[in-house]
Amino acid sequence: DYAYAWYNLQRDHQTDAIIKAAAPFGLNDVPNLAKSIDIVIPEDINSKIKERYPGTNRVALHAVESFGESKTWPPEYWHSLATKLMADGIEVVLIGRRDWYGNDSTLYIPGALVETDLSFLETIALLNQCRVMVAGDTGPIQLAGASECGIVGLYSVASPESKLPYRHGELGWNAIGVETTC
């Protein structure tokens, strides 16, 4: 899609590039607080996730098989990270994904919990029960932007400054972008 590529080539943050493009239609001077994703999770979903995942000594990893060399870490890196976290007593939850055909591309790591069928509201509720979420794809990173967990974004093509989410009116609040190579 050309529009998607155009937004990714802009020097501005992706949100700011979209706002600039919409300026002729009356959208401009949007304050940073309005760029944050604020979603209210229904209490029944929060309760369900808190019951399933009590406490917050966990890290979520969006660890999936390669779906484009520029959007993922090699499997051995995910295995190493998860193994080290679990050795330190931290619970690891692998947040996977299914494609349009229901095929699961989640990396399975012994000892880690796996979630592949959560709704986006359930995923945000789970992320609120995590200390940090690590991902190499901007979609899950933006979804984590609606939570309070820390974010570690792994970037290889785009710069973190153009992709980390706005939260609480601040670009990259409680988040860090790590630049890697393809």
Structural overview:
The strands form 2 sheets. A 6-stranded parallel β-sheet has the order 3-2-1-4-5-8, sandwiched between helices. Strands 6-7 form a two-stranded antiparallel sheet. The protein is globular, with a radius of gyration of 17 Å. The two termini are 21 Å apart. It has helices at residues 2-9, 14-22, 43-52, 75-87, 120-127, 138-144, and strands at residues 58-62, 91-95, 113-115, 132-135, 150-155, 166-167, 170-171, 175-179. The protein is an alpha/beta fold and 182 residues long. It is 30% helix and 18% strand. The mean pLDDT is 85. Strand 1, helix 4 and strand 2 (91-95) form a beta-alpha-beta unit.
First-last Cα distance = 21 Å
Count the E strands.
8
**Major β-sheet annotation:** 6 strands, parallel
- How much of the sequence lies in strands comes to 15-25%
N-to-C SSE series? HHHEHEEHEHEEEE
Large-scale geometry: globular
Gyration radius (Cα, Å) is 17 Å
Discrete helix count: 6
Sequence-ordered SSE layout with sheet pairings:
Blueprint: H1 2-9, H2 14-22, H3 43-52, E1 58-62, H4 75-87, E2 91-95, E3 113-115, H5 120-127, E4 132-135, H6 138-144, E5 150-155, E6 166-167, E7 170-171, E8 175-179
Parallel strand pairs: 1-2, 1-4, 2-3, 4-5, 5-8
Antiparallel strand pairs: 6-7
Helix pairs in contact: 3-5
